[in-house]
Amino acid sequence: MxxxxxxYAIYLTILAAGCITGSIFYKGDKKIxxxxxxxxxTFISQSCSVLCAKYFRNNMPVEHIYMMxxxxxxxxxxxxxxxxxxxxxxxxxLTLALVTFYVINTLFxxxxxxxxxxxxxxxxxxxxxxxxxxxxxxxxxxxxxxxFKNPLFLVAVGLxxxxxxxxxxxxxxxxLTQYKIYPSVIILIHLISNYVYYLILFMxxxxxxxx
Length: 211
Description:
single chain; 7 helices
């Protein structure tokens, strides 16, 4: 199996395992439901992306659609789990504005057959800020609670971790290349970050089950 497909096989396995585990342990807690759906949707989307790349030599339409749907799902997650009513309103309208922009970007700015760079950068910032706000909120949990067994805390940590690395990847790629940190190294760092991120989400699914 070529290295590219091996990387994707590992990636898809982690996504599928996370979605299945979350579904098995899910007991009706709507706060974690968006993450389970995101894992399942990402598995489907990335599977389609691999197939489109192999048979049609272009998986960019899948990526455009993924940005729209995933941002809507993460917006739902942030909205559901934020305790501040004003912030919830901001999240609702910001999510709607972002998805609208992604549609406009696809139709008029970055064609559906090209990489959705604008949407990707905005989604990275959205998830980074949303994850950071949730992480700060989770720090107010009672001291006796083991936050590392709290699925929402783990998801917030994963979001901050991955989107921080993604921000560096997207915004510093040119700078790093200039200083001879070659694209292959940058891509490898981003790949490892991807694995760590979804492994954290996978681990979070084990704590979805309520005692």
